[in-house]
């Protein structure tokens, strides 16, 4: 390499380093609180430092109603240094604060002038200097959503529990009234035990779902053989398939593994198999196929059943949502199966995809991060080696 080439290389390196440094400086500048001047007023340095450290959207508003400094997260609300306050509700709050009032108000604000996205916020304006007002806006939207979810869950759960509990009470009364008629007593008792079963399944599912929703992390994590998950889901529903006249077939790759909780995954795939059978006609087929694609294990449960209308395809994963009310109740459905599947899979860092067409059938595909086959310690016969054990992959031992 001659000196001209060396000089060119040095120049190029210099340019790259310079550009990188400017980018870093630019990013650092953007993350800081933004400050603008309003006439003669200046935001005190300490206030700017506090703004910089704030998670909430906050702004210092000058005497002319112009924003003078903002916290880094104020942009989502359209608060910008040098610009007037966009929201009339916030302008009112600032005006009141100038006359000494400091109240926290709960407001619903649009995210931007053109936006249809409204956010629930708690806003408070306080005078911090002769002519400066500090405005703090806390976004309560997520909190409100969680509260609504909790509220709906309790309301739905009590509604769902009322039906079997009511039926059990009525049947118990009927048995008492029919005490002298053994045939009737037998019939009522059979129905009573069916309702009790249903109640047991429903409470079991509610508990599973709340467990899945409550914990952020899985507690029982290990290497999970997908072969075992699929075999268990199929075995657990063989009787249901038989009595529904549906053929269960398994296909695809073997010997694949994921990290996670085997029991939770067995239940999730089992729920998909149970649905596939329940929503399929006699004489049809339900297939469970497995494959690995680009670091992901796909378990696809396919049926030739009634299918799901496009409008319902997103909603079927919601708790207690049933696309086909009558059929779901007839088959003892709780409307919780798919919700459990969705939470179970997302706890494993995966997702569930759905393809469906009414009267053609559905395919639910569980996608999970593929993991290496586990290394199993196999004791070695004394003669062959002095070492106690040899590592061999689980794949070798598989069929
Ligand atoms: P359920 O216990 O009612 O089956 P799920 O949460 O498992 O509750 O399913 C929600 C709804 O999605 C069902 O009520 C049904 O309408 C629809 N659904 C689920 N799986 C299928 C399927 N394989 N084919 C057709 N519809 C289905």
TrEMBL record:
Provide the catalytic activity annotation. ATP + protein L-histidine = ADP + protein N-phospho-L-histidine
Could you tell me which CDD domains the record lists for this protein?
HATPase (cd00075), HisKA (cd00082)
Respond yes or no to whether keyword Nucleotidyltransferase is given for this record: no
Matching SMART domains: HATPase_c, HisKA
Swiss-Prot/TrEMBL GO biological process terms: cellular response to phosphate starvation
The EC designation for this entry is 2.7.13.3
Picking any one GO molecular function of the record gives: phosphoprotein phosphatase activity
Keyword Transmembrane helix present in the record's keywords: the answer is yes
Q: Output a single Gene Ontology CC term carried by this record.
A: plasma membrane
Which parts of the chain span the membrane according to its record? 6-29
Instruction: Please name the Pfam families in this protein's record.
Output: HATPase_c (PF02518), HisKA (PF00512)
Q: Which PANTHER family match?
A: PHOSPHATE REGULON SENSOR PROTEIN PHOR (PTHR45453)
The protein's name in its UniProt record: Sensor-like histidine kinase SenX3
Organism (species): Microbacterium album
């Amino acid at each position: 390499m001659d000196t001209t080439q060396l000089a060119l290389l040095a120049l190029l390196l210099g340019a790259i380093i310079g550009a990188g440094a400017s980018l870093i400086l630019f990013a650092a500048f953007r993350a800081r609180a933004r400050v603008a001047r309003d006439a003669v007023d200046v935001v005190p340095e300490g206030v700017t430092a506090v703004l910089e450290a704030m998670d909430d959207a906050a702004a210092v508003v000058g005497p002319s109603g112009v924003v003078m400094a903002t916290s880094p997260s104020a942009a989502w609300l359209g608060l910008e240094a040098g610009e007037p306050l966009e929201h009339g509700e916030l302008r009112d709050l600032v005006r009141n604060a100038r006359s000494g009032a400091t109240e926290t108000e709960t407001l619903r604000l649009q995210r931007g002038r053109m936006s249809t996205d409204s956010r629930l916020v708690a806003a408070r304006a306080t005078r911090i200097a002769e002519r400066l007002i500090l405005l703090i806006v806390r976004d309560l939207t997520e909190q409100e959503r969680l509260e609504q979810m909790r509220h709906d869950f309790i309301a739905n759960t009590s509604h769902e529990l009322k039906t079997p509990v009511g039926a059990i009470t009525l049947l118990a009364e009927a048995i008492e009234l029919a005490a002298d008629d053994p045939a009737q007593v037998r019939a009522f008792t059979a129905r009573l035990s069916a309702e009790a079963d249903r109640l047991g399944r429903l409470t079991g599912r509610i508990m599973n779902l709340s467990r899945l929703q409550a914990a952020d992390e899985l507690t029982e994590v290990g290497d999970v053989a997908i072969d075992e998950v699929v075999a268990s889901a199929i075995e657990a529903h063989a009787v249901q398939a038989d009595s529904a006249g549906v053929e269960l077939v398994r296909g695809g790759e073997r010997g694949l593994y994921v990290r996670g909780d085997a029991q939770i995954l067995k239940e999730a795939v089992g729920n998909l198999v149970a649905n596939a059978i329940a929503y399929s006609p006699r004489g049809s087929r339900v297939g469970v196929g497995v494959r690995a694609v680009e670091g992901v294990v796909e378990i696809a449960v396919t049926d030739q059943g009634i299918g799901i209308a496009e409008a319902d395809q997103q909603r079927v994963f919601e708790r207690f949502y049933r696309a086909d009310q009558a059929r779901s109740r007839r088959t003892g459905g709780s409307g919780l199966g798919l919700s459990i599947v969705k939470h179970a899979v997302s706890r494993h860092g995966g997702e569930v995809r759905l393809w469906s067409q009414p009267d053609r059938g559905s395919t639910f595909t569980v996608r999970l991060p593929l993991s290496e086959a586990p290394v199993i310690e196999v004791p070695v016969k004394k003669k062959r080696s002095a070492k106690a054990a040899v590592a061999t992959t689980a794949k070798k031992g598989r069929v």
